[in-house]
Amino acid sequence: MKEALVDSVKIAPPTQNKKERNSSVELFRILATFLVLITHLNGWMAGGFVDWNDPVIGLDHKVCQLIIASLTVVCVNCFLIISGWYGLKLKFSSVWKMWVMLVCIYVPFYFLGLYMGNTFSPVALVNKVVAFSCESYFIQNYLMLMFLSPALNAFIEKYKDKVTSYAISLFVIEVLMESIFQNKSLFIENGYSLIHFITMYMLARSASFHKDQILKVAKYRWLLGYFLCAAVVCALHFTPYKHTWGYSNPVVVIESFMLFFPFLYKQYSNRFINWVAGGALAVYVIQVTNPVCDKLFDLDQWTLINFDYTSYLPLLLCFSLVFFIICLLYNEIAHRILGPLLKPIELFINDRLRF
User: Fold this and answer.
1) Is-contact 23 270, C-beta < 8 A?
2) N- to C-terminal Cα distance for the chain?
3) Per-residue model confidence as pLDDT tens digits over 225-262
4) Which of 5, 126, 136, 197 is deepest in the core (most CB within 10 A)?
């Protein structure tokens, strides 16, 4: 039962040979989720970046917020790198399990919002049940990436020797069109877009073909590259560059890979790590779902007002850990309750729809 629950929420499907998932990479998935939490709490939930010229705000607040943001901005790219590294496969079971996970979150929290004073709307409730129609850039773009994966994978398989050149070309186009020419027609939107998801997927697939060369580089060099990229991002904050904190920032893209590569040097299997990683997507979705998102914002604001920044930082860390654990437990309980109820529907549909 536990293994089924793990599979129900993981972002990247298993490889065809069905080997145990590498827990080192799953640990990276957990780290990526934790970085999402820190990014949100340290950034827009904290009211955005503080005014560097405001004399009322302490230097420790300004510097720490900037450093934390530069180290955690890789978070979403990390998820996409994992998916690209192993390769997505479009299966009904994958789409179904994602839908179940979303319904387990959207519907109960919608009723919680009603209890807290929100107005009931039949259309809104149907939207929560449909789930994929709810505005959520990561879920919707990732779903479209899944549907595009057969075409992308067919191209990769046929032109494997040209994939690296193609992936780098996509990356260069993204950088030129957004960062250099400020073009809006491609809707790159700082990486909140399908084109960025495809670019990251192709870059990661290409990188996977060069694993042997990657592992020849000393691990510490990748980590050093990660911190150097973070330092560059900090510097970009003080320039006119408009996409410093965008996932499509080329420095952020490179930084993401620098953080990922060190997790490739060791391969092992740990059921607990794999179980925790299986709840990663649920943790991500819960934190950006109302009324949870609103309450996190209020709590972050209250903490910043009532505590000095040196106290805020350890509280931020402790709260993120506790919130992560609560989300994992919620996801486990919800699937234990709803999973068996929806299983007959899954089997019925799966018998008539196979892709």
Assistant:
1) yes
2) 24
3) 999 999 999 999 999 999 999 999 999 999 999 999 99
4) 197
> Which tokens belong to 301?
């604001």
pTM of the shown model: 0.90
Q: What phi, psi does 17 have (nearest 5°)?
A: -80, 0
- How high is the pLDDT of residue 7? 40
CB-count burial class (<10 Å; 0-12, 13-18, 19+) for 70: buried
Report the pLDDT value the prediction gives residue 352, as an integer from 0 to 100. Answer: 65
Backbone phi, then psi, for 124, in 5-degree steps?
Answer: -65, -40
d(CA 27, CA 191): 24
pLDDT-flagged residues of the chain (< 50)? 1-17
Residues in the chain: 355
- pLDDT tens-digit profile of 27-48? 999 999 999 999 988 877 777 7
Q: CA-CA distance, 275 to 2, in Å (whole number)?
A: 8
* Distance separating alpha carbons of residues 346 and 213, to the nearest angstrom: 43
Pick the closest to residue 36 from 5, 60, 69, 7 (CA basis): 69
Sign of the torsion formed by the C-alpha atoms of 272, 278, 283 and 286: negative
- φ, ψ of residue 15 to 5 degrees: the values are -75, 165
